[in-house]
Every structure is written in structure tokens, then in C-alpha cells.
Amino acid sequence: MQTPDGLYVFLGPTLPRPDAARLLDATYLPPVAQGDVIRLCERKPRAIGIVDGYFENIPSVWHKEILHAIHQGVAVFGASSMGALRAAELHPFGMIGVGAVFDAFRDGRLEDDDEVAVIHGPAELGYPSLSEAMVNIRRTLADAAQEGVVPAATARRLEAIAKALPYRERGYGRLLRVAAAEGLPEEELADLRHWLPKGRCDQKREDALDLLQTMRRWAACGAPAPEARFHFEHTALWDRALRDGAHRPAPHPSAGNPLD
């Protein structure tokens, strides 16, 4: 089903769908996987927003299918998670990046995909988060240091400990336990533990909200999609991808059980 404005957003654990729908009237789809943008282009969307996406166990969205959408005159926005990664790589070609996570990857301050990776529960339960994104931990520790909750040196050590953890195991409880085992001052860790319930920041959520607001403003003012700044090369591999996509259903708002 196409929305009146032809707006589509790939969304999963970063932001609950009801919260998103209050900001932007769009068709919300599960996290994007390889081939989804190709098939979505058959619906002639006006704009596509990418927040969350598959990785590891399911092939990630292909750069070329995003370029295909841009070449077809579709405005493609990205933020927070997979959207920020792809926007950092494709903004020179017309993809529109939004938010602090996108800025950090675009500027080279962040490079690793695991910065945004999380694990979570199934779509049927609303993708409940079971780990914490590294970008959220970085922002939270920076805020804690700025507010004087912990010294800047302690925040840097905690950041290094969190980064060393596998992304599946990242969380504030695990971080504090490892930090205590490594001998960080108990009083400082206690202060941080007490502050976290109200002080922790969800940078990915903030960026997703920013993306939805940006898309809403863009749609309201009737702005055209950015001009494609490249020559789209048709290859045998691309033609095969188009043929394969034609035999699969387009993404459905209720489908999917993604990892990220």
C-alpha cells in the first residue's frame, strides 16, 4: 500500500513504530535487506528513509540499489544505523544523511560497522533491544564526563572497555562489571550507575527522530529529489539483480525478523 505522499521508511529496533508514526505519515517497513530497495522502487516512491537494516546473517542493502533509487528520482535519506553507514558512503552521489552518527562516519571519526550494531527481539514484540549500541555508549559517557559524574579519564577508560566487548554483549551492566574487575574506582562507578537511569542518551533514537522530521519538512515544502550526481552503469550483475527482484514480493510492513 502506498501512502498519499509516497514516503517509505525502513525501521526496526532504533525507534518504536508508534513513535515514528506520530512524527511522519509514512509506510513503515522492516529493516532493509539486500534487494528491498530494488523492489520498493517498483512502487514509484517519492522518498525512502533508511534507519535500520540487516547484516551478518542476511545480505545487507546493496549500495547500487540505493544509487538506482536516486537515479530514478527518489529522495533517499539515511540516519542512525544502517542508514547512517550507507549515507556516509553515498552522500557524494545524492543520498541525504541526517544526524550525529552520520556526521561521525562521514567525517571519519567513526569507521567500524559495530558502532551501530545491536541485537534485539523479534518484530512481533516490537524489536526490543537486548544490547546497547556503541554510539549510544560513547555519547552517554561523554555527557557523564561533561556533567562531572565521572572524570574524563575514567570516561575514556570505560569507552575503551565497551569498545573491546563484542557488540552482542554491550550494555551498561556488563560494562560496569568489567570496569570493576579491571580496578576502576568503585565510587566513580557507583556515581555513574546512579546517574545512568536518567542520564543515558540514545543517540540512534535522536537521529531517527531527526530523519523523520527532516523527511516531513522535505515532503511538506514540495522539494524535488536531489539530482543524481553520477552515471548509473548497467552491468550483467545489476540486470540479474533486477530480474531476481521482479520475482520476489516488495517489502511488506508486517514482514521480517531482523538481527539489526
Short synopsis of the structure:
InterPro entries: TfuA_core (IPR012924). By secondary structure, the protein is α/β, with parallel strands linked by helices.
Describe the structure.
The chain has helices spanning 17-23, 36-41, 63-71, 82-90, 100-106, 134-146, 152-164, 172-181, 186-199, 203-220, 236-246, and strands at 7-10, 27-29, 47-50, 75-78, 96-97. By secondary structure, it is an alpha/beta fold. It has two domains: 7-116 and 204-246; 129-203. The chain has a five-stranded parallel sheet, with helices on both faces. The longest helix is centred in the C-terminal third of the chain and has 18 residues, at 203-220. This is TfuA protein. It comes from Azospirillum argentinense.
Give the terminus-to-terminus CA distance.
24 Å
Rg from C-alpha positions? Answer: 19 Å
Which structural class do you get from the secondary structure elements? alpha/beta
Strand order of the largest sheet: 2-1-3-4-5
Task: Provide the helix percentage.
Answer: 40-55%
* N-to-C SSE string, H for helix and E for strand: EHEHEHEHEHHHHHHH
Report the strand count: 5
User: Which strand-content bin applies to the residues?
Assistant: 5-15%
Oligomeric category? single chain
The helix count comes to 11
Shape: elongated
Number of domains: 2
In this structure, how is the largest beta sheet organized?
A: 5 strands, parallel
Mean pLDDT: 90
Which residues form runs of ≥5 with pLDDT under 50? 254-259
InterPro entries: TfuA_core (IPR012924)
Protein name: TfuA protein
Pfam families: TfuA
Keywords: Plasmid
